[in-house]
Amino acid sequence: MKTISSLILVFIGLGSSANTNIKYSTKEYVEEWKEVAISQMQSFGIPASITLAQAILESANGNSDLAIIANNHFGIKCNTWKGDTYYKNDDQANECFRKYNSAKESYDDHSQFLKNKTRYASLFNLEKTDYKAWAQGLKDAGYATNPNYPKLLIDLIERLNLYELDGSDNEPEIASITENPQKTHKVIMMANTHDVLNHKNKIKYIVAKKRGYLLSYFERIWSRTLGIV
User: Are 193 and 92 part of one and the same domain?
Assistant: First the structure.
């Protein structure tokens, strides 16, 4: 994996216009890849915050030569890799790194790399919200040689509030509350977590997928009648 000396660009002037290779600021990188990180979390159980923090650190926000030329955003070396390769100096001269057809392939391979390697197995016993334990566990399992690797990940996660992404597949979130034109009741809209169904009396209602919790027009009107809400 990358050494800290090759990653210092993450923290010093990545927004400078003097470097014509710069594609992303940290904020832009997070916006570009956060949904992919959440999707990987839902499929593999790796905290989205950890995935993004590693990508930011290992690829200098997607601006490193390894990321630009090889689409490798996680600094994963060849090992038993059978695909295309890219060689560059790292801990040693002219080391072999995996090369991908797209950055998305790099995210997919990163998740499979952690999931399929025995040395990372203990990480998947941790809570997805425990990003500090994940950060330390990655270092202990040998992902990076830098002794400050856990601190660097944790600092990124906390500075950028990436931990907020780790609950994205746990609880249904209320995205908006709007009044209908007749002002008789409110409509609760839930982001990506609900089905809108028709009751037998033709009243529509919403079923949240995550917890089976029912919010219907009828129930809300009835609750107001009883003075509950």
Answer: no
Handedness of CA 195, 190, 29, 49 (dihedral sign): negative
Burial of residue 102 (CB within 10 Å: 0-12, 13-18, 19+) is: exposed
- Percentage of the chain beyond pLDDT 90 is 60
CB-based burial label for 83 (10 Å; 0-12, 13-18, 19+): exposed
**Best CA proximity match to 49, nearest among 169, 144, 129, 140:** 129
- Please list, in sequence order, all residues whose beta carbon lies within 8 angstroms of the beta carbon of residue 213, skipping any fewer than 6 positions away: 172, 207
State which residues form the domain around 206: 174-225
Note whether 115 and 71 are same-domain residues. yes
Task: Report pLDDT digits (tens) over 102-113.
Answer: 999 999 999 999
**pLDDT for the residue numbered 91:** 86
